[in-house]
Backbone:
């Protein structure tokens, strides 16, 4: 069965392509290489022994999207990762984010509505909950006003899919609300490749451990948490990738109860920034140079998932521990710096 993976050369997209190929799916990747490279294909081949079809394409070009679906009428499912994801940049360039993240989603859904039946998985984020009132966060927690255009594109994306599904019974869709993905494939053949200075915690830690960055700034030590630093739910990217395959199969096998569903994808366990640093020191055997500084504007105190719905309904559960995920992130960092 043919599956289109947009953004398939990116961090989560490449790991999902591996899991799909491991289960025998034929994957076609569309990627514009704006935040990835074609070399990622070699990593995928090294792990799975199979080279996915790759088309370099900008999904903002509607005629190309139309042409793609004409050429590949046998695509039965789409996993849509392709999007811009830098929060700060989205504040500076809102229209770029709305065009990249919303425009492309609309074009894909337009093509899918021409088909009798299709399955669609959307990359959403726990950012839709903002600072939730209760922990752990369930899917019924209210969606809060977005803090950034990036966050808004995830909320709007979900609404666009929901509204489309309401009038298009042929489209079956699932939005996966990711918590904090980290780590790399245990083979260290693929992983996260941040361009420039990493914005996210884990690549900043591994780069500091490698000596590329001098010091990690821990943003805030006075939060109302046990050790004063923020709490997040860090999920191993391989567990996250597997959640996509399980969600897709739920749709392909017609097991979904509704033609639009939403699931949290996290571990259910919250870890503080200091706990993440400790995990790094444990698995790498290195002392990390860090300093507690002022809070980062826009950060929330705490976010971790209630995963009951994903566990029971999807039959999926995150398996890796924080240390295992950290070990894989460190192996990958060591490999790319060699
Ligand atoms: C961030 C985005 C979020 C997005 C997610 C996608 C912000 C404010 N939020 O989430 O919208 O969906 O990435 O990956 O950008 N930290 C440090 N020092 C650092 C980097 C991070 O102390 O150099 C801390 C942060 O304060 C936070 C935790 O580490 O407590 C995780 O940060 P990060 O990896 O940026 O993820 P989020 O802020 O959860």
Residues:
């Amino acid at each position: 069965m043919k599956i289109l993976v947009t953004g398939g050369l990116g961090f989560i997209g490449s790991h999902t392509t591996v899991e799909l190929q491991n289960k025998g799916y034929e994957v076609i990747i569309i990627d514009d290489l704006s935040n990835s490279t074609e070399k990622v294909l070699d990593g995928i081949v090294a792990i799975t022994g199979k080279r996915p079809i790759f088309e370099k394409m900008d999904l903002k070009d509607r005629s190309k999207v139309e042409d793609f679906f004409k050429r590949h009428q046998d695509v039965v499912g789409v996993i849509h990762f392709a999007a811009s994801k830098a929060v700060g940049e989205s504040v500076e360039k809102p229209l770029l984010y709305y065009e990249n993240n919303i425009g492309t989603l609309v074009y894909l859904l337009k093509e899918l509505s021409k088909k009798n039946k299709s399955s669609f998985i959307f990359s959403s984020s726990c950012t839709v909950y903002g600072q939730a009132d209760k922990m752990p966060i369930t899917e019924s927690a209210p969606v809060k006003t977005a803090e950034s255009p990036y966050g808004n594109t995830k909320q709007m994306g979900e609404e666009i899919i929901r509204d489309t599904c309401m009038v298009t019974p042929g489209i079956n869709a699932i939005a996966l609300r990711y918590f904090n993905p980290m780590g790399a494939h245990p083979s260290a053949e693929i992983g996260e490749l941040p361009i420039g200075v990493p914005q996210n915690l884990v690549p900043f830690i591994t780069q500091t451990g490698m000596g590329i960055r001098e010091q990690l700034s821990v943003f805030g030590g006075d939060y109302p948490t046990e050790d004063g630093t923020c709490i997040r739910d860090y999920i191993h990217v391989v567990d996250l990738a597997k959640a996509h395959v399980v969600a897709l199969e739920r749709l392909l096998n017609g097991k979904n109860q509704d033609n639009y569903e939403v699931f949290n994808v996290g571990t259910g366990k919250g870890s503080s920034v200091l706990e993440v640093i400790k995990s790094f020191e444990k698995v790498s055997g290195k002392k990390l140079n860090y300093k507690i500084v002022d809070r980062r504007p826009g950060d929330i105190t705490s976010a971790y998932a209630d995963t009951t719905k994903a566990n029971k309904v999807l039959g999926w559960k995150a398996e890796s521990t924080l240390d295992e995920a950290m070990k894989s992130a460190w192996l990958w960092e060591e490999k790319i710096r060699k």
Remarks:
- The mean pLDDT is 97.
